[in-house]
Amino acid sequence: MRKSSYLVKKDKNLEFNKSKKENTLDYYITHKLVKNNKGAKVINEENNLKINFLKNNLKATKVLPNNMKKFKNTPNNLGYFKSRFGTISVGYNKYKRNTDIAFTFIPETFEKENHIKTKKLDDPNNYLGSEWKTSKKYFKASKLSFKYDADMEEVQKLEDDNDGIPDQEEKLLYEDEREEKQIESLKRRKAESSETQKHQINKKISILKEIQEEKNEDNLEFIKEVRKFVEKLKKGKLKKMIESDEAIARSKRVIELSSKINVIFLKKMIEKLINEGKYEENLEKLISIDLNSLTENQLREIAKSLNITS
User: Fold this and answer.
1) Tens-place pLDDT, residues 211-249
2) Residue 27 confidence (pLDDT)
3) Does the predicted TM-score (pTM) go above 0.70?
4) Backbone phi, psi, residue 299, to 5°
5) Could you give the CA distance from residue 270 to residue 276 in angstroms, rounded to a whole number?
6) Is the Cβ–Cβ distance between 198 and 39 less than 8 Å?
7) Tens digit of each residue's pLDDT (9 = 90 or more) over 273-302
8) Cβ pair 227, 169 in contact under 8 A
9) Alpha-carbon torsion, ordered 188, 194, 200, 204, to 10 deg
10) Rounded CA gap, 216 and 208, in Å?
11) How far apart are CA 69 and CA 140, in angstroms?
12) pLDDT confidence of residue 11
């Protein structure tokens, strides 16, 4: 099996460990939007913020830390496109087919500071594969970065983030184990509570289940976004910018073709005049010339002497 060209394989046996710093949208939503992260009201506050964040379809890029970094073996930046979750940057080795594709969410602050302008993937004016300036040439990854593994044909985290949370394709943006544990705890409390308390507990359970549903929808939508890009790339349906070297090569082919057309035209005109018996004073000389051995310039000289223009 081909080794991954530039990405670190993850350990699928990692167990959930909430004592470690998480690399999840849960963590960034909480630490970006919750100012008071101490006291008894924290869990309720977090859940209310999360359900608002999820139901309003706020962008993941809105809450991400601004720091970005370049990995030693990651490919060059292929381009950017807008998604439901914010701007996504793509890293891909366009000169090697069937290699892994890297994806990262661009934090909104970083996007503004670096004047990154993007369009939707299907926008006819969104070109990928451009010759970027140095500052945008290399693929840089934010805290939330992923890859499409070409061998496994699945979406994974770009690197092992060591946050103690197993990274599964269907739960790359959000895991819902925390909500599940809270629901179980509330159900146990409910069994020993008064009717008034049960009503409050049911409301909390309802919010937690809503969070789970919204998370699952977002997780699936993100995978669809990635796979849509991969499918378009594989089928050659992405609109790509013609790079300078390719443009030069095309220009050369056009010039060569034009030159061949000129040579054919000049030869035919000269042969026509010879066959018609014109220019009798030069006829013997013209007949003795092997026109196929002449260059375009030599043919032009003969054409010029015979008043032929191309």
Assistant:
1) 999 999 999 999 999 999 999 888 888 776 554 445 545
2) 83
3) no
4) -65, -35
5) 10
6) no
7) 666 665 555 555 565 567 677 777 777 777
8) no
9) 0
10) 12
11) 5
12) 36
Q: CB of 155 within 8 A of CB of 147?
A: yes
Strand order in the sheet with 77-83: 77-83, 86-91, 101-105, 145-149, 154-157
Q: Which two tokens stand for residue 241?
A: 């910018």
d(CA 304, CA 273): 13
Task: Name the nearest CA neighbour of 76 among 284, 294, 243.
Answer: 243
**Joined tokens for residue 20:** 């470690």
Q: What is d(CA 94, CA 77) in angstroms, rounded to the nearest whole number?
A: 10
Tokens 């919204």 belong to which residue? Answer: 214
Residue 166 belongs to what H/E stretch?
A: none
Closest by alpha carbon to 10, among 23, 27, 21? 23
Q: Whole-angstrom Cα distance, residue 239 to residue 242?
A: 10
Tokens of 299: 């043919």
Per-residue pLDDT of 65-116, as tens digits, reads 888 888 766 678 888 999 999 999 999 887 777 789 999 999 999 999 988 8
162: tokens are 């060591």
Among 21, 10, 136, which residue's Cα sits nearest to residue 68?
A: 136
